[in-house]
Design goal:
Length: 329
């Protein structure tokens, strides 16, 4: 049976591509078929779309852009200029050659108008917010987060993120434009290139910040600092960890943002992350071959060695003692 949620996402990406092409025909005062020559669109899969813009022979003014709350847009300007005017925001956003913009606002729909100068060449990637979240955390279920929770979780005033295009992205971006493959391999090729672009884009952002790779939906930098502080507090107090409420208070963030943000950044719940860390410490101590099983259990926060042995066996399928014996062999 076809999943209804997937149908919605398919409709969302597809209808957005059709809508942009229709609005382009209006802005360019031409027929939709002619507009298609100016803007090539591809529906890669149910939640991934691609637009190639230009280069156009004349400027396109006031192109309507309607961004659904479930939609994420990443635009790369390869040459020329693009101006984006968001509804309700006084200052427009200007993108020149070598600039990119990441647009997402899951709290409410966004309306904008785009002006595209002549001889502009740009690539626009579209995906769903859930697909984007899954790039960072495959276990996150966006359907469990209510609109009210979103309003607390996201910054409603933050609409976009601007950054220069990393040099390492120039090759895959141009390959998307210049590819010459049989139509049967087209979607496979474009899907691979788009995923490559996403991975380079966000990994480069992490290197720029000299920080761990962040889920881009944690909009508030202060929240990210608080969540990282919470992680350090947790690890520093591994043998006697604080409760969620205590951890939230000590790190200066509310419990909802802490629990969800922690899972976004580190890919696990707070205590599952702690247990993973404990098991890693246990492995290191076992490999040092100078600790007893009881010593290891107490040092990583277990009050009963039997609980440690059970957790270790559940995690690795082998008891700590047997693991230790195999190391000696």
């Amino acid at each position: 049976m076809t999943n209804r949620k997937i149908d919605l996402e398919t409709g969302l990406i597809k209808s957005t591509l059709i809508g942009i092409k229709h609005n382009l025909a209006i802005a360019f005062d031409t027929k939709p078929a002619e507009a298609g020559k100016l803007l090539q669109s591809n529906l890669i899969d149910e939640n991934l779309g691609l637009l190639n813009i230009g280069p156009t022979e004349k400027a396109i003014n006031a192109l309507d852009l309607i961004i659904h709350p479930q939609l994420v847009i990443l635009l790369f300007t390869l040459q020329g200029k693009v101006k984006i005017q968001f509804h309700g925001i006084d200052a427009p956003v200007f993108l020149e050659r070598g600039n990119s913009i990441f647009i997402s606002h899951p709290y409410a729909p966004l309306n904008a108008k785009m002006n595209i100068s002549c001889q502009t060449e740009a690539i626009v990637l579209l995906t769903t917010i859930e697909r984007m979240h899954h790039f960072f955390n495959a276990n996150l279920d966006m359907s469990t987060i209510t609109r009210e929770e979103l309003s607390r979780y996201y910054d409603p005033k933050k609409l976009y993120m601007l950054k220069s295009i990393p040099g390492s992205l120039s090759i895959p971006l141009h390959q998307i434009i210049q590819y010459n493959l049989d139509v049967h391999f087209k979607k496979m090729y474009l899907n691979g290139k788009i995923l490559e672009i996403f991975s380079i884009y966000f990994s480069h952002a992490a290197m720029d910040d000299e920080a761990e790779l962040d889920c881009p939906f944690l909009d508030n930098p202060d929240d990210i600092k608080c969540i990282r502080k919470a992680k350090q507090i947790l690890l520093d107090n591994m043998t006697d960890p604080p409760t969620i409420a205590q951890l939230a208070k000590q790190s200066g963030i509310n419990e909802f943002k802490l629990k969800n943000g922690f899972k976004d950044i580190y890919g696990n719940t707070i205590y599952a992350y702690l247990n993973e860390h404990r098991m890693q410490q246990a492995i290191l101590m076992l490999e040092q071959k100078n600790h007893t099983i009881n010593d290891i259990a107490y040092s990583i926060g277990y009050s009963k060695p039997s609980n440690f042995i059970a957790s270790f066996k559940k995690k690795y399928g082998i008891t700590p003692k047997k693991y230790e014996l195999e190391l000696r062999d």
